[in-house]
Amino acid sequence: MAQDDVRAAVWTAPVHVTDLSCVEAVYVYYRQAEGRLDYLRAEPQLSACPTDETETSPPPPAPVTEPAPPAEAYTFRKSAWIWETGLWREDPSGLLQRASDGGYDRLFIALEIEDGVVAHQDALAAFIRSGLAQGVEVLAVEGDPRMVTPEGLEYALGRARAIAAYNEARPEAPLAGLQYDIEPYLLEIYKADPAGVLEKWSAAIRALSAAYGDRVGAVIPFWMPAAPGGMPALTAASPSIRSLTAMAYRTDPDAIASAASGVLAAGQELGLPVNVALEAGPLEDEYLFVYRRSPSGELLLSPDQGPEQTVSLFSDAVHPQGDAAAFSYSHSVTAPASRVSFLGDGEALEAALNETRARLAAHPSFAGIALHGVF
User: Is the dihedral of CA 329, 334, 338, 343 positive or negative?
Assistant: First the structure.
């Protein structure tokens, strides 16, 4: 990034936007902790950029044709995550009854693994059998950003082998699958090399699938197909992936559909079913600074290769050079948690689920909804 002086940025982060000229504002999210600001992420806000099509008269209407036959739809599944192992061990019948009453037909549960062996195997087998009797399928879920590092991946491979060994030892009550929620973009190394880290994610998915002995599910952020290296990583990993789950944590059906659209398109291209994940549990409000486009400002947006741009935040105003754009501080606002989580409001959740399902049904890759924090 070129600039008039050599002042160091207070904070930098990657953002994903194709056309820098379309960005009219940048939101910088932060938390207040122990008297300091912890910056979380930057989100560009886009204007309606003119295109050749919009600058000229609209094209004539297309001729009326018979609609294409509907694509073969996946069976709709309603899933939930159970990250607390005590929930399925200590009250299995109560959990399954709540799942059945809520229309959930699939649970992703966390497992305890001790000395390379799945713990509580009798309880797990009983839970799986009871679930099947009530029409609820049970799968395992694993997740840690460090799975893209050599040490973290080695540890995860051992756990994958332990889960595979459980299935082999318990053919009467096997887990129905294994899913990975790795989220490597939470690591500091992602800021420096997003495409390289997603390449490591892809390699990890392939290695974990091989260790497990079957394809695995993959949970990804809604923006991954548009991220630098995102689609190549998904393409390389796709032979090892059974399904994608897009974290589209929003509460408005329009916003959910918009967020999920990129992963749904990627799933269609790759021939993979896509589940859309929503958040139902408790979250704290977030805070953000709003920076608006200006001749100079405290925030610079600098172009890199492809859809990747770099946000750099300074303590005071700087002047952009080259293709960089400046944004000056406008104001700060609170982003309520209710924008991204239903916060335990079951009635609002069900209403949004019904509307979202109807909106997404036209996507050939849409296969279901997954809920985080509902139990």
Answer: positive
At 317, list the tokens: 């105003």
* Cα–Cα distance, 323 to 344 (Å, whole number): 45
Task: Write out pLDDT tens, residues 25-83.
Answer: 999 989 887 778 888 889 899 886 654 443 333 444 444 333 333 445 799 999 999 99
- Contact by Cβ (8 Å): 308, 302: no
Based on the domain organization, do 270 and 129 belong to the same domain?
Answer: yes
Note whether 302 and 364 are same-domain residues: no
The residues, any chain, with a CB within 8 Å of residue 119's CB and separated by 6 or more, are 111, 112, 113
154 and 273 in one domain? yes
Place of tokens 């600039």: 3
CA–CA separation, 314 vs 295, rounded Å? 15
Q: Looking at the structure, tell me whether residues 206 and 124 fall in a common domain.
A: yes
Q: Containing domain of residue 299, as a range?
A: 286-335
Q: What's the Cα-to-Cα distance from 187 to each of 144, 224, 302, rounded to whole Å?
A: 10, 15, 22
Predicted structure pTM score: 0.80
Which run of H or E residues covers position 168? helix 150-169
Q: Return d(Cα 265, Cα 272) in angstroms, integer.
A: 10
